[in-house]
């Protein structure tokens, strides 16, 4: 039986994601909810719907709110506004009222499944979706730093000339404030940093610095192709028997500063999102990670106090 996945949000992001899902041809029944302009949505949707007819497994229809009650997953895909990176936080102020209305509509129409979010500042949107929806924290997940983790693992594979399954790297935090956990990143049986001591590997401190720059670049954060690749893998983990451990935005309630959503490695599966063990960091990494947590919680508090958008 096909999993039913309802996709809503901005048309450009929906179109991009649908193209990826059509190419992958998974056993998924995709249902797109109309945007604010149904006629425009129908026109843009026609080409994708025609392409989906070539799929053996994936199907695509234009749906209604009534489809939410029987959906397994709702994907909320929002695009990045065309503003300067330093002004990105103002994005939250503009999107929060619409986002709250969207989440409320999903719940009011009987949805009880899992919500998967792909958007700028998805760590904030995952947290507020949890607040607005009343869903268990295991049923909300954002792409978070998973796309950056996939990119880092790919680059390590190419630079060290190893196989795809030989690399395990972690990027945690948020896409805007990420931390590469070098102390827990491995190639084969050894930590990545051990390869710096072997000149035969042609892997140096300069390579580490370059990887950190590339993984933290705004261009990577804004790369929706990589974002969709990560989103597709997470979706199949949530609806099919393809569990994976991924650095995704997930709700955490055990921090001293208060509850929040932040990217850490968790198990993503049919059962939702579950933390298998606490994240162990080096002393310097722990200090940096706590700083990220503190700043993120401060932003959440400002939003909750009505200083940054429509949650008061």
TrEMBL record:
Species in which this protein is naturally found: Secundilactobacillus paracollinoides
Which Pfam family is an annotated match for this chain, by its short name?
Ldh_1_N
- Protein's name in the database: Lactate/malate dehydrogenase N-terminal domain-containing protein
Swiss-Prot/TrEMBL GO biological process terms? lactate metabolic process
Q: What is the lineage of its organism?
A: Bacteria, Bacillati, Bacillota, Bacilli, Lactobacillales
InterPro entries on file: Lactate/malate_DH_N (IPR001236), Lactate_DH/Glyco_Ohase_4_C (IPR015955), NAD(P)-bd_dom_sf (IPR036291)
Where's the Lactate/malate dehydrogenase N-terminal domain?
A: 4-142
- Entry's Gene Ontology molecular function annotations: L-lactate dehydrogenase (NAD+) activity
């Amino acid at each position: 039986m096909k999993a039913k996945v309802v996709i809503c949000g901005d048309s450009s992001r929906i179109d991009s994601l649908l193209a990826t899902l059509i190419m992958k041809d998974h056993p998924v029944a995709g249902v797109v909810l109309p945007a604010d302009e149904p006629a425009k949505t129908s026109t843009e949707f026609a080409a994708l719907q025609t392409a989906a007819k070539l799929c053996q497994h994936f199907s695509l229809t234009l749906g209604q709110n009534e489809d939410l009650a029987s959906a397994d997953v709702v994907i909320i895909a929002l695009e990045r506004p065309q503003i300067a990176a330093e002004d990105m936080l103002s994005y939250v102020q503009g999107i929060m009222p619409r986002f709250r209305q969207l989440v409320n509509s999903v719940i009011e129409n009987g949805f009880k499944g899992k919500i998967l979010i792909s958007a700028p500042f998805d760590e904030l949107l995952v947290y507020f979706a949890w607040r607005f929806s009343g869903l268990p924290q295991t049923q909300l997940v954002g792409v978070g730093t998973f796309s950056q983790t996939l990119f880092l693992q790919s680059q390590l594979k190419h630079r060290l000339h190893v196989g795809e399954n030989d690399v395990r790297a972690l990027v945690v935090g948020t896409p805007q404030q990420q931390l590469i956990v070098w102390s827990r990143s491995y190639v084969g049986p050894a930590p990545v940093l051990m390869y710096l001591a072997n000149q035969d590997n042609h892997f140096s401190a300069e390579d580490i610095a370059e990887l950190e720059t590339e993984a933290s670049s705004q261009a990577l954060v804004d790369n929706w192709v990589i974002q969709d690749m990560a989103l597709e893998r997470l979706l199949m983990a949530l609806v099919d028997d393809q569990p994976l451990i991924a650095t995704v935005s997930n709700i955490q309630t055990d921090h001293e500063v208060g509850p929040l959503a932040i990217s850490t490695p968790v198990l993503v599966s049919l059962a939702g999102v579950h933390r298998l063990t606490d994240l162990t960091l080096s002393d310097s990494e722990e200090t940096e990670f706590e700083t990220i947590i503190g700043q993120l919680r401060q932003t959440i508090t400002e939003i909750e106090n009505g200083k940054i958008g429509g949650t008061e």
